[in-house]
Amino acid sequence: MQKLPIGIQNFEDIRKENYLYVDKTKQILQMIENGKCYFLSRPRRFGKSLFWQIFDNINIRGNV
Questions:
Q1: Quick one: 47 exposed, middle or buried, by C-beta within 10 A (0-12, 13-18, 19+)?
Q2: Which of 8, 24, 43, 64 is the most exposed place for a label (fewest CB within 10 A)?
Q3: Distances in Å between the alpha carbon of 42 and those of 16, 21, 34, 47, 64?
Q4: Closest Cα to residue 50, out of 17, 13, 4?
Q5: Which residues pair with 3 in a beta bridge?
Q6: If we measure between CA atoms, which residue out of 13, 58, 56 comes closest to residue 5?
Q7: How far apart are CA 8 and CA 17, in angstroms?
Q8: Phi and psi for 31 in degrees, rounded to 5?
Q9: pTM over 0.70
Q10: pLDDT tens digits, 4-58
């Protein structure tokens, strides 16, 4: 059983340590392909930084 990433806010750590996470790469790729501006309104401590780290890994480094 995979561990829950409670308190882990780094995408690379989640991947390396095999934590459970919901894969949003399909939605991120759709956002990149559409090329529109997006406003991401989410509460504090609700994964915005983690989302952007995933986006950065896809967009800059080409990792998925």
A1: middle
A2: 43
A3: 26, 17, 21, 8, 23
A4: 13
A5: 19
A6: 13
A7: 10
A8: -65, -40
A9: no
A10: 888 887 878 888 898 988 777 788 778 778 877 777 776 666 667 777 777 777 7
